[in-house]
Amino acid sequence: MADAAVKTVDAADEELTDGFNLIIDALKLNGLNTIYGVPGIPITDFGRMAQAAGIRVLSFRHEQNAGYAASIAGFLTKKPGICLTVSAPGFLNGLTALAHATTNCFPMILISGSSEREIVDLQQGDYEEMDQLAIAKPLCKAAYRVLHAQDIGIGIARAIRAAVSGRPGGVYLDLPAKLFGQVMNAEDGRKSLVKVIDAAPAQIPGPEAIKRAIDVLKGAKKPLIILGKGAAYAQADDAIRALVEKTGAPFLPMSMGKGLLPDTHPQCAGAARSTVLKDSDVVLLIGARLNWLLSHGKGKAWGEPFTKKFIQIDIEPKEMDSNVEIVAPVVGDIGSAVAALNDAMGGHWAKAPAEWMGAVTKKRDENIAKMAPKLMNNNAPMDYHGALGVLKQIVKERPDAMLVNEGANALDLTRGIVDVYQPRKRIDVGTWGVMGIGMGYAIGAAIETGKPVLAIEGDSAFGFSGMEIETICRYKLPVCIVIFNNDGIYRGTDVNPLGTDPAVTMFVKGARYDKMMEAFGGVGVNATNPDELKRAVNAAMDSGKPTLINAVIDPAAGSESGRIGNLNPQSKLKKK
Ligand code: OXT
Ligand code: ADP
Ligand code: MG
Hints:
There is one protein chain. By secondary structure, the protein is α/β, with parallel strands linked by helices. 40% of the residues lie in helices and 16% in strands. The chain is built from 23 helices and 19 strands. The strands form four sheets. It has a six-stranded parallel sheet, with helices on both faces. A six-stranded parallel sheet has the order 15-14-16-17-19-18, sandwiched between helices. The site of magnesium ion (MG) has 6 residues, from helix 20. Magnesium ion binds at residues 458-460, 486, 488-489.
């Protein structure tokens, strides 16, 4: 089909364009210069042509990983990350990442080729037949299909606007095979393209909302500020820092909100989490939902009897009162809302009472002091603390490196131990606690930021996207992967009482993931103690060479589900 279209172009007197070129032109016009995907019918030629036209096209080994790369590109840049897939199976592989982007409020567009509408709709068994639009709809903010070349400009403009305006999220764009080869007059084609103006307009909160929030904040004796990944996404770093420092209140960063202000900031209450949740009286939420990660804003974690007052800044009005009453809802974009609060607070705001900050600091320092000796052991095999002690120091020395993190113990202990110093440096499993983001995020982060990436991975977590180490080696990306290899999911000590198959959480004992990396020309290292780990990570971060370090962790060191074991249902009838 592509050949036929090209021939038509050559033969014609008038200047022509086609679907292939219009999609490329529309993306470029809107500054979307990177595509993450997997080629195949009907998008192979499109990928080639996009690459030849100067778009960076990164070919992955599985669409889910390309999708995760696109989703994190959206988080890091505030522009929709683009994932490109083939029809039915490729589309479905990308769909998990699209749903993930929507759930996490990251802007992303999944563009999938699709089969012939006439055949699909009559269910006559076309190649990779599937009604992709219908399937995508419940999992994204918006889903569009373009049938005519002259609508490509509008279709892409709608997709961009839907992805980044209001609460960001995933958008699906269905491009049937026939569209790519459709030919039209080049001038008409140019005119049909749309450069999206003000795609994510400021949403300025009303003055009454600001006044209400200020009044509540003024009455606080024990204020707390919670910084979520929405605050990181907003890129209003200076205004947020000014607000936090003006209040003199402790702040609690959610996992991907870490680094907005350094974890070592005197007001950081990350290491006194239980205390600030329980004892605070007024809580200002900035870009953080009261979902499971915050115990839904109620119950024991929040202190009983419940007397909390919540102020919430969020762009999504429906988020207010989702779990508990929000006494001061501030609906707007975080940049505008925080600026308005800063203005309203003026230059003489009374800081939070010293005894409150003092009590929080005391608890925080106690917890940090309790942790410190554990981080200094040089045991072999390593425990998580010994390994993370050296990684903590390495990140401190390289604060602009990107940190990717997934696993259970490998996630929770890294989150607690490794301080983050700059905004948007820590990217992880997000709202779903999903395994599999690792290599996609590492690739997306390396491409979008140009910074070295350190990926700290559980051995199970890594397995979900492990084949992408070939992609990392192929594009020579500065990614250092550390696999915390404890022979299994949570622990490597489970036993099947029947003694037949291995226990359900167990992997091959003593596996050497480093050898996989060598197969693709990367550097593989087996590290059995913290000293070896430190040397290997420093060498990788200095050289920028794709590196995978198999960090041998004591199989007994972890706990079931890390910090969230309480979420596992228990059988009263289970045989002991
Ligand atoms: O204040 P208190 O006293 O409470 O103390 C807290 C802090 O104040 C303190 N703290 C500190 N102390 C000292 N110093 C410092 N610096 C410091 N910082 C903090 O420490 C405690 C704890 O602090 P924290 O962590 O902030 O607080 P807490 O209470 O834990 O917070 C609650 C949460 C909920 C906010 C937090 O725990 C959180 O964010 N959790 C996220 C958990 C999560 O998402 N987990 C991933 C999912 S688990 C499971 O589902 C897995 N699966 C199933 C599966 C998944 N997920 N996906 C797919 C597609 N398929 C299947 C699988 C397969 S995990 C998994 C693989 C696991 O195996 P691996 O081999 O990969 O990993 P290993 O476990 O390593 O083997
Ligand atoms: P965390 O998991 O870190 O607590 P969540 O993903 O639960 O964070 O919450 C992020 C919130 O931030 C979402 O409710 C989303 O609507 C909001 N948000 C995202 N971007 C902006 C923005 N620019 N302005 C205001 N709110 C935003
Ligand atoms: Mg493990």
